[in-house]
């Protein structure tokens, strides 16, 4: 059967497209940076030039870049990382930019909270950030960003702040913490101690995720936590599993939940309201009223 020139050209074009697709797919996962939405977050500044094409890393290749820390990021369902290297013209100053896409605000806050220290010098960039000599790490939406300046002059922090603010503008994400953090009481709350654990909260597989905050009242140091279930039935199921694995002589029913004696966490106060499990841990003997008071607060404020 004879084919007209149009169909011959069309078949040839489709063949070329198919070949190109195979070629792109067979390349390294670090290639084709323009395919990544993270590439658009990288600002361009006068006198600073990229020394190489930005590199991309995914869950199966992240260990190639941060071998020792990759598991921590993967535990928060890490999606993608882009790394860019810059050099300032006529100087030895270099800048490394790492942008981690963690998929959502909870996960990005989780890894950020795991790496920050209470004693860090915090700055108002994006949702929150902190600086050290030649370093600025910050959080904005689903992104966790790290800026590292090497051999930089005394204006390094000013430059890093300006660079970070430009990323914030490009990200177009809301600068806000996970909403459930607003449910924790303020009295005795240790600043910058909030953390989010995505999996195996408190070491229990059935506690699929949770928030925990440190508290200090005179000589008493304890923690409050909140676990958000998918719905009220899911939350009740998690609480039932927890109470069933505890020895009967270590668990006591109280009017609004349970008190559990634990060899590590001392006295634990735990209860459910709607789809939330509320808890207070590390309450020492003779401070039971504190545990009960904070549990009641959590039950009243959860999900607001």
How does this structure look, described?
- There is one protein chain.
- By secondary structure, the protein is of the alpha+beta class.
- It folds into 2 domains: 33-171, Protein Transport Mog1p, Chain A; 179-301, TM1622-like (Protein Transport Mog1p, Chain A).
- It contains 6 helices and 15 strands.
- The chain has helices at 5-25, 70-74, 105-115, 156-171, 232-244, 288-301; strands at 48-50, 55-57, 80-88, 94-101, 121-123, 128-132, 135-140, 143-150, 195-197, 210-217, 220-228, 251-254, 257-262, 266-273, 276-283.
- The strands form 2 sheets. Strands 1, 2, 3, 4, 5, 6, 7 and 8 form an 8-stranded antiparallel sheet that branches.
- Residues 1-29 have low confidence and may be disordered.
Entry summary:
By secondary structure, this protein is an alpha+beta fold. It is built from 6 helices and 15 strands. Helices cover 26% and strands 30% of the residues.
Instruction: Please give the CATH class of the largest domain.
Output: Alpha Beta
What's the average pLDDT? 86
Poorly predicted spans: 1-29
- Compute the number of strand runs: 15
Give the biggest sheet.
8 strands, antiparallel
| Number of structural units classed as domains | 2
Helix and strand string, N-terminal first?
Answer: HEEHEEHEEEEHEEEHEEEEH
- Give the overall form: elongated
Residue share in helix: 25-40%
CATH overall fold name of the largest domain:
Protein Transport Mog1p, Chain A
Radius of gyration: 25 Å
CATH architecture of the largest domain: 3-Layer(aba) Sandwich
Number of helices: 6
Distance between the termini: 72 Å
């Amino acid at each position: 059967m004879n084919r007209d020139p149009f169909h011959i050209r069309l078949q040839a074009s489709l063949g070329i497209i198919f070949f190109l697709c195979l070629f792109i797919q067979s390349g390294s996962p670090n290639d084709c940076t323009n395919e990544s939405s993270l590439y658009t977050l990288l600002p361009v500044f006068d006198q600073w030039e990229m020394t190489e094409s930005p590199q991309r890393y995914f869950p199966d290749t992240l260990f190639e870049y941060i071998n020792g820390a990759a598991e921590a990021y993967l535990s928060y369902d890490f999606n993608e990382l882009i790394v860019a290297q810059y050099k300032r013209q006529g100087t030895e100053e270099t800048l490394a930019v790492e942008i981690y896409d963690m998929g959502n605000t909870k996960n990005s806050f989780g890894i950020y909270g795991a790496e920050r220290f209470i004693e860090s010098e915090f700055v108002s960039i994006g949702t929150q950030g902190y600086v050290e000599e030649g370093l600025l790490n910050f959080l904005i939406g689903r992104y966790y960003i790290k800026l590292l300046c090497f051999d930089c002059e005394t204006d390094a922090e000013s430059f890093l702040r300006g660079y970070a603010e430009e990323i914030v503008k490009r990200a177009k994400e809301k600068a806000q913490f996970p909403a459930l953090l607003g449910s924790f009481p303020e009295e005795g709350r240790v600043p910058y101690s909030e953390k989010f654990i995505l999996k195996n909260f408190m070491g229990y597989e059935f506690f699929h995720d949770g928030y925990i905050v440190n508290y200090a009242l005179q000589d008493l140091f304890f923690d409050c936590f909140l676990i958000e279930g998918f719905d009220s039935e899911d939350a009740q199921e998690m609480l039932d599993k927890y109470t069933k694995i505890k020895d009967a002589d270590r668990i006591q029913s109280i009017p609004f939940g349970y008190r559990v004696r634990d060899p590590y966490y001392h006295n634990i106060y735990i209860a459910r309201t709607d789809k939330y499990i509320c808890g207070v841990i590390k309450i020492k003997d003779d401070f039971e009223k504190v545990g009960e008071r904070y549990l009641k607060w959590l039950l009243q404020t959860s999900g607001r």
